[in-house]
């Protein structure tokens, strides 16, 4: 999953109105494709779908669909995540040398 932290707006699926969540996620999806794709919006869509997939008020088919879509959106979010900064050859060598160096004996 792209984002494991729970959304403060939806602390648990119990007690939520699934129709409202479904309406919100459909609205968000239409905005995602209306303009240029936004990583943050994709993450919000993924979290909404995740909450819906575990909602006891939805039927099993809708839960499974939301689960599959949540996984697809999570993959999309992960795809657009920025790559870690590249290190230079010197930085990699310095890291290797510092990792192999034995600890200096303590002065007595």
Describe the model.
With 108 residues, the chain is mainly alpha-helical. It has one domain. The chain contains 4 helices and no strands. It has helices at 18-34, 39-53, 60-79, 89-100. The longest helix is centred in the middle third of the chain and has 20 residues, at 60-79. The protein starts with 17 loop residues before the first helix and ends in an 8-residue tail after the last helix. Mean pLDDT is 79; it is low at 1-6.
C-alpha end-to-end distance: 52 Å
Proportion in β-strands: under 5%
Mean pLDDT: 79
Label the overall shape.
elongated
The count of helical stretches stands at 4
- Poorly predicted parts: 1-6
Order of helices and strands: HHHH
Largest sheet: none
The portion of residues assigned to helices is: 55-70%
Determine the structural class based on helices, strands and strand pairing: mainly alpha
Number of strands: 0
Domain tally? 1
Overall radius of gyration: 22 Å
List the helices and strands and how they pair.
Layout: H1 18-34, H2 39-53, H3 60-79, H4 89-100
Helix pairs in contact: 1-2, 2-3
Could you provide a short overview of the structure?
The protein has 108 residues and is an all-alpha fold. The protein has helices spanning 18-34, 39-53, 60-79, 89-100.
């Amino acid at each position: 999953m792209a984002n494991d932290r729970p959304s403060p707006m939806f602390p648990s699926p119990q007690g939520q109105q699934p129709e409202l969540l479904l309406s919100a996620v459909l609205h968000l999806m239409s905005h995602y494709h209306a303009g240029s794709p936004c990583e943050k919006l994709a993450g919000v869509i993924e979290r909404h779908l995740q909450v819906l997939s575990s909602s006891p008020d939805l039927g099993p088919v809708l839960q499974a669909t939301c689960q599959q879509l949540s996984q697809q959106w999570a993959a999309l979010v992960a795809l657009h995540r920025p790559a870690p900064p590249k290190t230079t050859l010197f930085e990699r060598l310095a890291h290797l040398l510092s990792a192999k160096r034995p600890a200096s004996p303590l002065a007595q």
